[in-house]
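Reading a protein record of the kind used here takes little practice once its layout is understood. The reader may check this reading against the record printed directly beneath this paragraph.
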Amino acid sequence: MSSSVHDIEKKVDQLYEQVELFAKGALTYKMLSEKQADLINASEQHKPEDLFGSDQEQRPLVVAFFGGTGVGKSTLLNRFAGQTIARTGVERPTSREVTIFVHRSVEIKQLPEDFPLDKVNIRQHQVEEKKEILWIDMPDIDSVETANLEIVRDWLPYIDVLLYVVSPERYRDDRGWQFLLDQGYNHAWLFVINQWLLGNHGDDESVLRDFESLLQKAGFDQPLIYRTDCKSDRMDDDFDQLQQNLLGLANDHTINELERRGIWLRLQTLRNVLEQQIQWLGEREWLDQLEESYEKIWTQAMIDIRQHLELPILKTAVRYKRPTFSLIERFRPGFDKSHDQKETVSEKLTVWDSRAQVIVEGVLDKMILEADSLGLSVNPFRERLDKIRPGIEEKMNVSLQTGLQQGLATPGSRLQRILHKFLEIMTTLLPVAALAWVAYRVITVFYVGQSSDYLGANFAIHSFLLVLVAWLIPYLLYKKSRPSLEKAAKKGLEQGLSAGLAEIDVEIRSVISQIRQLQNGLLATAEDLLAASNSIKPVQQEVTGTTLSRMLQKELHSTSSTPKL
């Protein structure tokens, strides 16, 4: 691998680490689901060179045999090796063993930690002309043992060339075909129709043409297909050509091209992951639309709540209504003066009820549904809005109680309270002034020595009437000007209701603001990472007109678009 390509690979590795950290942060804030955040980890990170130590100057080409049960993979490997190194026969369908055939000078230092080493059979050879190839015989991928498919899945990233083996009878019914196509875009492919001469297929070119047509639909313009028969005495098949092509591919140029292609595919995968995660985070204007929808939802909810609580508020306020003032009733025995002066809240309020609670919680539910319909991730909204739910009832009751107490503490308007206080003072001051005037007249007459008739019955009656009028008029005005506690309670409850709803409104808007900040921050990070990945110059070079170009798929294939065998 050239130094420039090696530098690019380092940048790609660093980007993968940064994208992984970004995804973890988004998952922590519930802006991405576990599956969405794990998308970068789900992409394959391993590569063939990981099997070998970094001190090895040039690694061999890793070639693996894949295919269904009974197609002769192990027999084909034994023929390549010139000796029996892989088990064949009835043992194969249930065997989970992976056989590696490698030159003794090649040291495998980096076998994956989670691979069971007791299931890896490493066989060494001393043939120099086959030194540049590491052969792997994989379990049957259509075996009844589901673990075989997992072994194949684990080993795929470490393979350069997939040698896909079929038989004339079963080239269309191999269940592993779809799996390998979906997983094998970053590999080179060779195709072998084994057991060709065992039946009557020697002169039947229709199987070959049909198989070639299927491969072309799968993205191979000119697939390399070889016909072999490893159990026949006839040696006029394509085996020698297949072997020569493999040995010809085992060079630095081919390995470098495959590694270059692998880096390009990893970079493309990283870009695709970031583009998907940016899409999942949602557009910035979606939150503006959500806030507009919330305005309408909340406005209607407040109207519904006020209409619903209008009667409970009136019923609560009427408990503080003072009895109609009657001077006669006041002087009757048994008159309860404490009722006339009741201005505090002693019993628990019952204004906020389950219906009002349902209306507010309905707003939260509608917010979650609205976020989902806009394409935003609902998890952060649900987590934060659910924290508001338990405190709604207590918050509203406290706000209503506080509003009622404040209303009763300051009933009426400021001018009305000043006038009422003034009249209260007058009920004392005017009678005292009248009494003072009477006393003054008595003293004046006494010292002047006027006729005592002046102090007779008429004077006493007039003086009494004067004092009575001086007290009665301001007292009646004082009583009539007293602010209504019923109205004060109603006003206080309405203000408490408004204050409580306003507090809930602030909390909901705070959730939207928090999500907006998170979204903006994460989108900015993701867009920076995507820009950094786009700034990396292409490392993929078009491979045309070579044997290797015929071994590569031309485009990625999904499960739905890949042709069935």
